[in-house]
Design a protein that fits this description.
about 240 residues; alpha/beta; Rossmann fold; six-stranded mixed sheet; three-stranded antiparallel sheet; 8 helices; globular; binds adenosine-5'-triphosphate; binds magnesium ion
């Protein structure tokens, strides 16, 4: 019997990304394996979003390679991406999910039950008829997570999903992310919130100016940073 295809591990081998003369990622070699969430950490402009886009397959390295489960060309069927500022369709909450499910190939008859299940999973039950763009920022972020989960991803790529949220809304999003991780989904999440790194655990990819500066367990990164840049970042000094 053939083993089922998996997108894991994600292996980046000397990945560089340049736009024009601007070097965005610089010979990044990193393996992201199954397990607890991997947090992509670094100052503004360090390349977190660019790295996630490459992991999704939305951008191709200028040089170097990325492979998904040993394949250099893996369509993003088992991966989902939540953008930092997700854009909802100008329709109801339920219609946004219906659209995502249809896109994921779920037949019409099965969609209402899946919509109910997804809404419960992200704590938006009762809001299915609300225009999606009328939701609060935190609710929209949860809807974006539900939309991503509708694809039943093996890898969930999240770009600073709590960047503009207050503590309660952040907690709600983190709970969804942790539940997804516990259900076996590999979460890869950009963040520059050190408390979040500690809460979500797992391991850390620390970027500075497009280069990999540190690769370690999350708690090691916070409590025993190995590089001077990481130590300064963890102390709260400006790393530019
Ligand atoms: N299409 C592009 N053209 C030119 N420069 C780009 C492009 N995309 C990204 N950059 C630059 O590459 C660098 C890294 O950007 P990226 O968005 O990946 O960083 P980031 O770590 O996600 O930052 P932030 O924390 O602000 O979200 C930045 O200096 C950015 O301006
Ligand atoms: Mg970014």
């Amino acid at each position: 019997m053939r083993a089922p295809l998996t997108d894991l591990p994600l292996v980046l081998d000397r990945v560089s990304l340049a736009v024009g003369a601007t070097e965005i990622l610089d010979r990044l070699s990193v393996t992201i394996a199954a397990g607890p969430p991997t947090l992509v950490v670094g100052p503004n402009g360090s390349g977190k979003t660019s790295l996630l886009r490459i992991c999704m397959g939305l951008a191709r390295p200028t040089s170097g390679t990325i492979s998904w489960g040993g394949r250099l060309d893996a369509p993003p069927l088992r991966r989902a991406f939540v953008f930092q500022r997700p854009v909802m369709l100008r329709r109801s909450v339920a219609a946004n999910l219906d659209y995502a499910l249809a896109h994921a190939g779920v037949i019409r008859r099965q969609r209402p039950a899946r919509i109910a299940e997804l809404l419960a999973r992200v704590g938006l039950d009762g809001l299915e008829g609300r225009p999606a763009r009328r939701l609060s920022g935190g609710e929209q972020q949860r809807l974006a997570l539900a939309r991503a989960l509708a694809r039943e991803p093996e890898i969930l790529l999240l770009d600073e999903p709590t960047a503009s949220l207050d503590p309660a809304a952040t907690r709600a999003v983190e709970d969804i992310v942790l539940a997804a991780a516990r259900s076996g989904i590999k979460v890869v999440m950009a963040s520059h919130d050190l408390g979040q790194v500690r809460r979500l655990g797992g391991d850390v990819v620390f970027l500075v100016r497009g280069a990999l500066r540190e690769r370690s367990g999350a708690i090691d990164f916070l409590d025993h940073p190995a590089s001077e840049d990481a130590a300064r970042f963890v102390r709260g000094d400006l790393v530019i």
